[in-house]
């Protein structure tokens, strides 16, 4: 018998949260698209220190994929995911259908500027609209007290923090550290797309990211150098390799308090993201 409660509808999920809250318990949410790896599971462990009950949501969100992207082939493995979660402090899984989250005739959207501009939006203009929409729905529907997002998707974390502040949502947003393979490659559900040769090249991403983040030259020189190094390492395309203000994600200026190095490079069809603090 599974220890985890499995909820497919918003009504069912809300009822569970209401029951926990009636008992005075603090409820946490870990939003994911499934195909869980140790990076996701680390978020469950991290939020456990700050919540009495933990929900992990598993939902491959169609509105954050463009027509040409990998929505239909995105790895889906619910039974394996549920088994993995049995070994964590998670208490419930929320795995709704697309119809449940996007009722027939759905038309509402969210448009954001600020940290949602540039970087990911350059090549994926639909992306943060879809992410903000599903996260807003998950947060308002589950009414959890706290939610956690990985620094792996750093721009996403900043977009969500901005949205939660802008809309005065009564939820605490936590950040989870990036979990990596032994050779430094950031864990990702999309790493399964890499063949053996690409997997070797992929390990260079983190090495070059650290060089970018610790570069003492001007940002322009450091960024050009990182692009050159990535192509030389065998990446097929560099979407961006840059130093940004860690909070606004704009180009650093006199108000910048902390900086972040961010890279997205492609190996064939696979997009790899990584980021780290920068000097
Ligand atoms: P996803 O299933 O890709 O939407 O990711 C769900 C959550 O897990 C997001 O908050 C991600 O930032 C986070 N995540 C993904 N990979 C990692 C990782 N390697 N380390 C830490 N968090 C991660």
Structural features, described:
With 279 residues, the chain is of the alpha/beta class. The chain has 2 domains: 172 residues, HUPs (Rossmann fold, 3-Layer(aba) Sandwich), CATH 3.40.50.620; 90 residues, 2-Layer Sandwich (Pantoate--beta-alanine Ligase, Chain: A,domain 2). The chain contains 10 helices and 9 strands. The strands form 2 sheets. Strands 1-4-3-2-5-6 form a 6-stranded parallel beta sheet. Strands 7-8-9 form a 3-stranded antiparallel beta sheet, covered by helices on one side. Helix 3 links the parallel strand 3 and strand 4. Helix 6 crosses helix 7 and helix 9 packs antiparallel against helix 10. The relative contact order is 0.13.
**Order of the strands making up the biggest sheet:** 1-4-3-2-5-6
Helix/strand order: EHEHEHEHHHEHEHHHEEE
CATH third-tier fold name of the largest domain: Rossmann fold
CATH superfamily of the largest domain: HUPs
Number of domains: 2
Class by alpha and beta content:
alpha/beta
Summarize the structure.
It is globular and about 55 Å long. It has 279 residues and is of the alpha/beta class.
């Amino acid at each position: 018998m599974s220890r985890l409660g499995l909820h497919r509808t918003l009504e069912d999920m809300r009822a569970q949260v209401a029951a926990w809250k009636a008992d005075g318990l603090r409820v946490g949410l870990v939003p994911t698209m499934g195909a869980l790896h140790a990076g996701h599971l680390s978020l469950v462990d991290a939020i456990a220190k700050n919540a009495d009950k933990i929900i992990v949501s598993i939902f491959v969100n169609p509105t954050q994929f463009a027509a040409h992207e990998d929505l239909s082939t995105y790895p889906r493995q619910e039974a394996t995911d549920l088994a993995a979660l049995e070994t964590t402090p998670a208490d419930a899984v929320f795995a709704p259908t697309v119809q449940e989250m996007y009722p027939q005739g759905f038309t509402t959207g969210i448009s954001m500027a600020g940290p949602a501009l540039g970087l990911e939006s350059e090549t994926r203009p639909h992306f943060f609209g879809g992410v903000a929409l599903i996260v807003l729905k998950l947060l308002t529907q589950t009414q959890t007290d706290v939610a956690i997002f990985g620094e792996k998707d750093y721009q996403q974390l900043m977009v969500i923090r901005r949205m939660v502040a802008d809309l005065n949502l009564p939820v605490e947003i936590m950040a989870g550290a990036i979990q990596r393979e032994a050779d430094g490659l950031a864990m990702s559900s999309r790493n399964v797309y890499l063949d053996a040769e690409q997997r070797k090249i992929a390990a260079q991403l983190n090495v070059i990211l650290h060089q970018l983040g610790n570069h003492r030259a001007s940002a322009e020189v450091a960024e050009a150098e990182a692009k050159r190094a990535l192509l030389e390492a065998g990446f097929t395309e560099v979407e961006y390799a840059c130093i940004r203000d860690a909070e606004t994600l704009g180009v650093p200026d006199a108000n910048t308090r902390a900086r972040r190095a961010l890279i997205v490079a492609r190996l064939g069809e696979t997009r790899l993201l990584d980021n780290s603090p920068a000097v």
